[in-house]
Amino acid sequence: MRKGALYDVAVKNGCNKVALGHHADDLTDTFLLSLFYEGRLSTFAPKSFLDRTGLTLIRPLIMAKEADITGYAKDLPVVKSPCPANKQTKREFVKKAVREIAKEIPNVREMAYTAITHPERYNLFDKFRKEIDEIP
After folding, report:
1. The whole model's pTM is what?
2. What is the pLDDT, as a whole number, of residue 80?
3. Of the candidates 31, 17, 19, which has an alpha carbon nearest to the alpha carbon of residue 113?
4. Which member of 14, 34, 116, 124 lies 3.0 to 4.6 Å from 40 by CB, making a disulfide possible if both were Cys?
C-alpha cells in the first residue's frame, strides 16, 4: 500500500519517474523469496514501466551493497519503521538465512547476484526443452 500511495503522489505531481532505493541485497533477497515462497525464479528489474500509472520505476542503487550504503549514510538520521511486522517478515527470515549460509560460503550474496545479473550463466531446464522433446 505504501508504494501505491507513492505512485499516486508522483502522478498527482506530474512525475513520470520514481526512483526506489532497492540495492543489490534487496535484489538477491527478492530472488530467494520468489524461489522459496512462490516457486518462481524471479526478481525485480533495474528499470520497469507501470502501464496503469504511466510511471517508470528506476533503481539506481541496484549495484550497491546494503553494507556500503549503510556506511555512507552512518551520519544521517534514522527513522524507525512503525510497522508492527518490522523485522518479523519473510524477507527478514531470508536475510537471516543468508547470514547463516555466509558463515560457510562467505561470498554467497555475490554469487547469487552474479547468477541473477549474468545471463550467460543461465542454465535451466527450458534451455534444453527442445533437446528433451527430441529424445526418442
Report:
1. 0.84
2. 83
3. 31
4. 34
